[in-house]
Amino acid sequence: MVAVALIGWFFTGQFRIGLQLGNVAPPAINIDGKLVEFPYSDENANEDLIIFSNSKDYYGFGYATMYFAVKNISGKSQNVDLAFSFKDNDKRQLVSLERYAGNHTEIVPASVDLADDLSEITIPAHEITKTDWIKNTSEKKSINWVGNRKDVKGMVSDKFLTQAIAKDEVIYFKAKIKFPTDPNGDEFFIEAFGDQGAYGHLDPTNWSGVDSVDYTNATAIVGQTGLGTGWQNDWLSNTSWLGNTSVKTEGAGSGYTTGATANIYRTLTTASDEGILKVWLMRTDNTTGDFLFGIREGGPDGAGRGFIDMDGDDVGTPDITVCDNALGGCQVIVSNYSNNTWYLIHLGWNAADDTLRGREDSSSTWTSNVATAAFTNINELRILTSGAGYTGNSHFDGIGVGAESPTPPAAPEQPQQSFIPWTEF
Predict the structure, then answer these.
(1) Domains along the chain?
(2) CB of 79 within 8 A of CB of 105?
(3) How confident is residue 168, by pLDDT bands cut at 50, 70 and 90?
(4) What is the rounded CA–CA span in Å between residue 380 and residue 235?
(5) CA dist 122 to 261, 297, 299, Å?
(6) Is there a contact between 390 and 288 (Cβ–Cβ < 8 Å)?
(7) What pLDDT was estimated at residue 181?
(8) What percent of the chain clears pLDDT 70, i.e. is strictly above it?
(9) Pair 356, 349: CB distance under 8 Å
(10) Cα–Cα distance measured from residue 140 to residue 134, given in angstroms and rounded to the nearest whole number
(11) Using alpha carbons only, what angle is made at residue 49 by residues 20 and 270, rounded to the nearest 5 degrees?
């Protein structure tokens, strides 16, 4: 059984690794320059379309990206219908399904990045591997299956894809699934129906969690345990961020720092190409410097793709903005924010059009989209302070799954304000 979360799908079933009743897991494939293996499946009795996944747990913020493979061991070529069954189809759904089609290479131009001490480093032009995917059309249709079918617990089959799979062939897929914040979790099902009688079944679970490190301890956050749901590691990097018992938002103390170059990061176990997170942020003195809450890919210590910036009064009015890393664009979320005031901010991203967006929780309106450098999946959070003469304390708390709003963001616009021209964060 696989498990999926918003920042976490949790392992709740009986996954086995490697051999599945004599069936060897399919070969690993290169996805965007990383070797991805498919060692996980569940109980495969009376199945001859074996479904393998790359992980038993999947994590994201509102969406999860999963990779899976279907292996045909029926002894016959099959035209296979893939079905996804959900309990609550208006909230849980298959967003997209794509078939693996190999790789190509691209040249990334030279750029400037930031070291942990915020000094600039030059990254030379280099070649990267990008994966090609064929987007499959899917449709709702009834299941007319005369063979033995495993239990899907009365759930409604939502999407189908018909795919030809030859005898002994393995086909690889990428699926993006949307599901609501749900601390209790809920399963869904993937089934494969062959036109020559073959069948396969996989039973994942989707649920969500939050960052649950206990920040009431007035010591360095780096080194504290208590990962919360979906996290690959505790906070890493320097020890300038501390727990604070006197300032809090949702029951536990906040994380805070007085340091001018305080930098910590944390990585999810798996990544998502789309998502929305929320976080409480506050500064006690916004005279100078910046307080940044960012998202990155390829972590730990990956490449910056965008951030929320509580900037200082030294660059104009102190605003809370959503900014990209490479192109220098920003959109204002809160203009002229107040010191010693908590703001609950939502940050959204979408790799389909390489955009970011932000909004305050009390508003239903997103900023216009901010165009960013091309990215594939987000799997890391980074929090830091910077800027000459940085003043005051910065606080964060309550990192969790953000929410959509009724008002969609507009198309990307030109930057509304200038800021420190970093190409990486």
Answers:
(1) 3-111+132-207 (2.60.40.10), 236-401 (2.60.120.200)
(2) no
(3) very high
(4) 11
(5) 20, 19, 19
(6) yes
(7) 57
(8) 78
(9) yes
(10) 20
(11) 65
pLDDT band at residue 17 under the 50/70/90 scheme: very low
Which structure tokens are listed for 398? 């309550």
**290 close to 411: Cβ distance less than 8 angstroms:** no
State whether residue 321 is helix, strand or coil: strand
Q: Please state, in angstroms and as integers, the Cα–Cα distance from residue 259 to each residue in 12, 77, 218, 279, 339, following that order.
A: 41, 63, 15, 20, 17
DSSP β-ladder status, 57-58 and 3-5: parallel
Q: Could you check whether the bond before residue 124 is cis, i.e. omega within 30 degrees of 0?
A: no
Q: Which residues, in sequence order, are bridge partners of residue 255? A: 243, 396
Q: State yes or no: pLDDT of 192 exceeds 60.
A: yes
Tokens matching residue 230 = 């979906």
DSSP H or E run through 128: strand 126-135
The pair phi, psi for residue 125, each rounded to 5°, is: -55, 140
Assigned token pair, 208: 């969500």
The helix (run of H) or strand (run of E) holding residue 198 is: none
Name the CA dihedral angle for 407, 412, 417, 419, rounded to a multiple of 10 degrees.
Answer: 110
Q: Which residue is listed with tokens 């990779």?
A: 67
- Looking at every residue in the chain, the average pLDDT score rounds to 79
Q: Are 151 and 273 in contact (CB under 8 A)?
A: no
**Mean local confidence (pLDDT), 216-241:** 77
Closest by Cα among 350, 93, 59, 347 to 209: 59
35-62 pLDDT, tens digit per residue, is: 999 988 888 889 999 999 887 777 778 7
Task: Give the angle 87-89-93 at the CA atoms, nearest 5°.
Answer: 105
